[in-house]
Amino acid sequence: FKVVNDTSGHPVGDALLRQVAALLHSAIRGTDLVARLGGDEFGVLLRHCELEAARRIADGLHKRLESFRFEHDGKRYRIGASVGLVLVDAHW
Predict the structure, then answer these.
(1) What DSSP element (H or E) covers 71?
(2) Of 11, 28, 29, 89, which is most buried, counting CB atoms within 10 Å of its CB?
C-alpha cells in the first residue's frame, strides 16, 4: 500500500483499500464480518465456524490476495498478505 500511496497518491491508495475490502467480503459468508483494523490491516470474523472450515476460508483469502493485481493509470501492482488464524470458542 505504501508504494501505491507514494507513487500514485493517497486517493489511489484508498481505491486499493476499497478493492481489497471488497475482495475479502466476496470470499466470506453472509454472517461473517470484514473490518479494517488500521492502515493496510484487516480482520475477518468467521461466526460459528469450525476450525477446518476456517482454515479453508483463510487459505482461500490468502490465495485471492496473492493473485490480486491492482491497476491504475497503466501501472499494475501486486500486493502481499500475511494471514493468521485464531479460534475463539467457549473454552477461550
Answers:
(1) strand 69-72
(2) 28
pTM, two decimals, is: 0.85
Name the burial class of residue 4, with classes exposed (0-12), middle (13-18) and buried (19+) by CB atoms within 10 angstroms of its CB.
buried
Beta carbons within 8 Å of 24's beta carbon, 6+ residues apart: 34, 42, 44, 61, 65
Instruction: Express each pLDDT in 22-41 by its tens digit.
Output: 999 998 999 999 999 988 89
Q: Which of 6, 14, 32, 40 is catalytic?
A: 40
The mean pLDDT of 7-34, rounded to a whole number, is 93
Closest residue by Cα to residue 15 from 70, 89, 52 = 70
Query: Does residue 40 carry a catalytic annotation?
Result: yes
Q: In angstroms, rounded to a whole number, what is the distance separating the alpha carbons of residues 33 and 5?
A: 26
Band of the pLDDT at 2, cuts 50, 70, 90? confident
